[in-house]
Amino acid sequence: MGQIVQAAKITHVPTIWMSHTMEKYRGIRQSAIDGYARLRAEAQEAGVETFIVFDTHWIVNQGFHLNAKPRHADTFTSHELPHMLAGLDYDYRGDPELAELIVKTLQGADVRALAQTDENLGLEYGTLLPMHFINQGSFARVLPVAVNQFASIAENLEWGRLLAQAIAASGRKVSVLASGSLSHAFWPNDKSAEGINSINGEFNRQMDLRVLELWEQGRWVEFLDMLPEYAEKCAGECGMNDTALLFGALGAADYAGQITTHTPYFPSSGTGQVNISFSPAGVA
Ligand SMILES: [Fe+2]
């Protein structure tokens, strides 16, 4: 039987790549890079065979899509922020078998789920940036999942639940990663350069900190109750649907686990970011 052996909410901000590759910015996101290293150690300790990444930069408008290609290899430059993130080489094994099982499980519940295999479909940086560090050495397969910007939190919680069912029926040890922001109010253009290391608004900062308190205290039902409004009022990245998928996979209101903070809360270009694991015991 398969199992979710790691679950986490993770950052993917391009300032991490700047910190890693540009002398002028060296070290500005060291805490995120260190957090990725801890996530890598946690994944290796747990025997992760496949990373499923809910990628808020692979944004779809209809249905539930997985990138089911057997291999993901190319060089990536961001079309959104090419001055921040360019020339990222990648080469990972995909997981077509697990993708097919997930699609069949979701289709069995009347979800419009689709496994994509077009050779021209590349990966986005919500997957690539964290994988560069967490999956260093390409020790595990990578299965990117698109995030639907027009689906509801409730739909994504259900899709996450079904996805966990499919993982349980597979032979894989899986890490599920929600790759996206907490609050996500980018600075307006005229403030974007000076705002690289700050949050856009005290309201968003306070909401993010309160959410992290709820997570630390295990107050999952209250968090899930506020999630749709939190996403709306704090400019959720892709509607915070990556978070909804993650919590669905963890059991939603039945979840009773604890968090481990690998990278404490930090602001980047106006947005709020963390690397936090959720204990997956009893999931699968
Ligand atoms: Fe993002």
From TrEMBL:
InterPro entries: HPCD, Xdiol_dOase_suB. Keywords: Dioxygenase, Oxidoreductase. Residues 7-278 form the Extradiol ring-cleavage dioxygenase class III enzyme subunit B domain. SUPFAM superfamilies: LigB-like. GO terms for molecular function: 3,4-dihydroxyphenylacetate 2,3-dioxygenase activity; ferrous iron binding. It comes from the Bacteria. It is an enzyme of class 1 (oxidoreductase). Its EC number is 1.13.11.15. PANTHER family: 4,5-DOPA DIOXYGENASE EXTRADIOL-LIKE PROTEIN, 4-HYDROXYPHENYLACETATE CATABOLISM PROTEIN. NCBIfam families: HpaD_Fe (TIGR02298). This is 3,4-dihydroxyphenylacetate 2,3-dioxygenase. It comes from Profundibacter amoris.
